[in-house]
Write a structure and sequence with these properties.
- The chain is α+β, with helices and mostly antiparallel strands.
- The protein has two domains: about 25-105; about 110-200, no CATH class.
- Helices cover about 40% and strands about 20% of the residues.
- The protein has helices at about 1-25, 130-135, 135-155, 160-175, 185-200; strands spanning about 30, 40, 45-50, 50-55, 55-60, 65-70, 70-75, 85-90, 95, 100.
- The protein has a five-stranded antiparallel β-sheet, with helices on one face.
- A hairpin with a 5-residue loop joins β7 (about 70-75) and β8.
- The longest helix is centred in the first third of the chain and has 22 residues, at about 1-25.
- It is globular, with a radius of gyration of 20 Å.
- Pfam families: LprI.
- Keywords: Lipoprotein, Signal.
Length: about 200
């Protein structure tokens, strides 16, 4: 009887374990952490440190540690829902990471205008567009780039060359699938580079 009860408890633990790990994942974000580079989360339990996939350990539903090489990133979810990210590296170096995009995860402040700039209803599953739709951080970056591009287009007086450049950039962004496990970080990098390029060339914000 005791052995049967123990077996049932073990089976229950095995069933609940993956559910717990799925629930306890940091939200999607895109942070910059000084000398160790960028830190990206896809919101599904995957974290990248400077482009390298990290090993992540969950301590509870609001705190995680991600490790890659000699660098450790601490991730916590604040009471308002926003992530707080800090890092520690060799030689006792450490610091606070800063968000790369203006995304507010506070439940009261979420809106239908959070992005992306296109409809997610017809995107192909597993495509770059789908990954962007599933990520609040990447969706916000898409909305921001769309605004910057519209400003640049207005300044250029609807220059056909600029439109062609943007179409070419989208094709390049979609090539991030070649980076496999690193795809969300590649997409974020692509957005940041394009926004910087347009801002510098056309003097827009």
């Amino acid at each position: 009887m005791k052995r049967l009860k123990m077996t049932r408890l073990m089976m229950l633990a095995l069933v609940l374990a993956p559910l717990t790990s799925m629930a306890a994942a940091p939200q999607a974000f895109n942070f910059s952490c000084a000398s160790i580079g960028g830190v990206n989360s896809d919101g599904k339990g995957n974290v990248w440190i400077n482009g390298a996939k990290a090993t992540i350990k969950s301590f509870n539903e609001n705190y995680w540690e991600a490790k890659s090489g000699k660098n450790t990133v601490s991730i916590s979810r604040k009471d308002d829902g926003n992530p707080e990210v800090s890092w520690a590296g060799p030689n006792r170096k450490h610091g606070i990471c800063q968000p790369e995009d203006n995304v507010d995860y506070s439940p009261a402040k979420k809106s239908a205008n959070a992005g992306p700039s296109y409809s997610c209803s017809a995107v192909q599953k597993g495509s770059a567009e789908d990954i962007i739709c599933q990520s609040p951080s990447l969706s916000a970056m898409d909305m921001k780039l769309n605004g910057i591009f519209k400003q640049a287009l207005a300044k250029s007086k609807n220059d056909p060359m600029l439109k062609a450049e943007q179409r070419g950039w989208i094709k390049g962004r979609n090539e991030c699938w070649k980076e496999k496990d690193n795809e969300p970080a590649c997409i974020a990098r692509s957005y940041n580079e394009r926004m910087t390029e347009l801002q510098n060339k056309w003097g827009v914000k």
